[in-house]
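Q: Predict the bound structure with zinc ion.
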Amino acid sequence: MKQFIVFMKFAGKILSRCRVNLMQVIGWAIALVLLIAWLPIGVLPLVHSTPLKQQPAEHTESTSSLPVSQPHPLPQSLVHWQDTDQQGDYFDQIQPTPLGYLVWSQFPIRVYVEPPIAVSGMGGDRSPIWFDAVIQAVQEWHDYLPLVLVNTPEAADITVLRQLPRLRRQGTTFRAQSAETRYELYLKPQRDRAMLLAQRFTIVLRSSQSAEHLKAAARHELGHTLGIWGHSPVETDALYFSQIRQPVPISARDINTLKRIYEQPTRIGWTVERVGSAHPSTYSKSMAQAAASP
Ligand SMILES: [Zn+2]
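A: Predicted complex:
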């Protein structure tokens, strides 16, 4: 902008001295402004798409540094959780992302569940059964972490969609899955030029299952979105790696595992200073991973 003002003053002088064609000068001014304006747009996405990748230690002081990894305060619901029978956990099966554990630090966590088709129960439509099953699973987890339903996917941290998950390759064949959960890390603008390293999830859950198995699948996938990014080797846990004939509720071991995850340090949920004046969208979508269920 400064160059533009200087240029316009300069152009004004030329105009007054030489009586150059006014339209010609305006044309050159527009061309110069476009050139100045274009340069940052072309360069910034390259510069600002890097912050979500892990930086070597010597680069942590640069403009693309990430938040420091540290634990968040334990949510009150988990502070009060006591497993009197001490049934253990499967924390050793949980994978942190390269940026740390997928814990939530802002509550309530906002969940969008795709609504049923308006005319329900017609032509074998299973969408109301699917919807009820997912809502019940949301309510079950709400006992352990605060969740709230929202009306649009744009307002949600977790989006649950009634869709067929992608086919999974097994050797030379492809196998159908009951559900799939994906996460994405992005930088969310905050006040005072700060950016929060945040996560959002999408669950894709097919409706062609019994109500009981739908609820079990929703319970399992929601467990992933709340931070349990891994599977239990024990059949009586909701996060058991395979679907079973008689689904089980959320177990004490599931919550013991959840509590240990929320005690871990992570970069996720902490803020970093915003870099330059780039539009926040240039920071988004740098990491995605999916967990599939059979
Ligand atoms: Zn799973």
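A: Residues 76-293 form a domain with the Collagenase (Catalytic Domain) fold (CATH 3.40.390.10).
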